[in-house]
Queue: 4 jobs
Job 1
Amino acid sequence: MELKRIADEMQPRTMAARDWVFQVIRTAIVRGVLPGGMPLRQDEISAALSVSHIPVREAFRQLEAQGLVRIYPNRGAVVTKLTKEEMANIMDTRILLELGALRTAFPYLTDSVLDEAESIINQSENETDLHVIEDLNLKFHFVLYKCANNDVLLQLIEQLHANVDRYVRQYYKVAEETSNSDHRQLIEACRNKDMVLADAVLRTHLELAKKLLASLDESIA
């Protein structure tokens, strides 16, 4: 089972069983291993992860709170499947939140923070694993946003990322060069203390992601 392989990647397990199971299933959903509309069987997941049903049920509730799973009475948990309209709404919300995070963080973006962000771009350019590339993309943005010092804001952005990134991951390699170019332009604007340009670069970057989602085949969305 692919879930077992993901679980092995996340060893050693240092967190509570519920949180670990949540992270494994969440990763599987974001990677598209568990696609939208797929029922989640407690027995299968418990066996694959060598845990009881209790942490699996608790993980399902956490995933439902993030919009990744829907729990139906007498039917169980099912991975959510977003419509194109829902994805567009999520991207519009992401744009508002991420621009707000960047503006709030901007005065605190030191050279060391920007150097860290630039090193992530370098890693991405030398990476071939699609999953690692997307993880680095998210890490790049959060290195900047964390300077806003607002954990609630970061959690909301991360949740919205998870809901739509599962649809674009398979196309990410195609857009990687453009993405890294945007990231370098963003870093340069931040180093030059040009908030207006940084804002424009990030907005364009996110709008392109929104357009990609809008272009997806209806059967995927």
Job 2
Amino acid sequence: MRSYKNEKEAESMLSGKDGLPHFIPKKYAMRTYHGKKTLKLVPVIPSLIFVHASYRQIIAFKQSAYDHLQFIVMNWEGANRYITIRDKEMKSFIRVCEQHSDDTRFYHPEDIRVEKGTRVRVHGGALDNVEGIFVKVTGKRSKQLVVLLTGVMAVSTTVQPEYLEVLEE
């Protein structure tokens, strides 16, 4: 969903008593306030909010609590459809995003070179059981685990090869 220039207000409303489960991908960024530089946790993509609820639940929330959320649609086979993401993909995406490390990068699907990518699962560490694609990302010297939200966005992070299990398609 999208909350144009109001992600802080939308986040507080979604976190409230009548709120819905949601996730906003964030990263640490250097910001200057009143001449002082500080490290702040900011949204990766302004106004983007992932909401885990049914269409009816979201409409009810919009009518009763916060009307500024907008559905995001994508043209799929000639028709506009709401973007939905499978739970398994979203769980892996959230686990990688929550690392908030300097080696975590966000990409649009067309920016990733996946031709020789292999589907893998991580065993051990903070990303235990996360599935993704093990690839070399342009501009990075190390190998990366890329977790894709099909057709929407991707996130990558560095993973040690000894933690990986190759999955059969």
Job 3
Amino acid sequence: MLNGKQKRYLRSLAVNLNSSFQIGKDGLSENLYKGVNEALKANELVKVNVLKTCETEINEIEIEICRNCKCELVQHIGKTLVLYKKSKEGKIILP
């Protein structure tokens, strides 16, 4: 569980990230979960953009991704989610 100071630090790192994944009309799928997991293992911090064509509510999407990928939500602004999962290598050192 991340505290406020850690979330602020991760949000500051996420400003320079481009969206790694986009969720559209197909919604959530196993391939999306696999891709997000791989990206989290490699980078620890991932930005996901939900397109207007997605019929699933953004709150449901964030819950499902966090549950299936075992990651934490850092930020949810509009249709953009920032996710974090600590890897074994520990590339990002939290305060």
Job 4
Amino acid sequence: MIEQACEFLSERIAGFQPDFCLVLGSGCGTIAERIRAQAAVNYRDIPGFCPSTAPGHSGKLIFGMLGGKKVVCMQGRLHYYEGYSMAEIVFPIRVLRRLGAQYLVMTNASGGINVNWRPGDIMAVEDHINLMGFNPLIGPNRAEEGVRFPDMTRAYDPVLIATADNAAQQLGIELRHGVYLAASGPSFETPAEIRAFRTWGADAVGMSTVPEVIQAAHCGYRTLVLSLITNMAAGVLDRPITSEEVGETGAASAEKLGQLIEKILVDI
């Protein structure tokens, strides 16, 4: 299926070979408008790809230029809570690596566990806690892609994080650093769970990203993840959490996050 997907895409991008794979999470889809697009393909049309059903995820691959670099942008991702298997979630990551992408830059929307942070803050993920109950590498190892037991110590590339820090400083953007915890969703976490996650050292919580990072470590990407704090996690504030709040904060912060991503690509 990977070969079929690569052949299908290669016929439509006329020799364009992306160096960067950009994955846009909830509320961040408008960042794709910054790309000087050369081709766009719907997930539904690509062999092996699944349609994105989450709100605000348009489900398109966009090939083009951003920050002077050749990129392929996933305008929307797949989630475990949509009913997809881990293999289906990470399939696009494997395909785009086979197409030539060496760098993976991902965004996501997350709930702030760290009480010193506020909605609209951006966090460079330094590490993660996988509470999704599954790993995308379970099953026979694909030796042509990576080793059986990949090291996760530097899954989040420290050089790319330093590049992001420098870019943020030049743009006057405060860039947080922290640990991202992934839960399966789709229900938001309970206040008791958030208190537990805080004691474990988590700074933010979400329902994505970790499967892709694990797959990326396996197949040799250099990875940077920027997590947009769209709301405070359950129990931090005395009010319910809504998906509308996530979307509104994402839309309000998309310009700032887009500027940062473009500057990072220029500087790499």
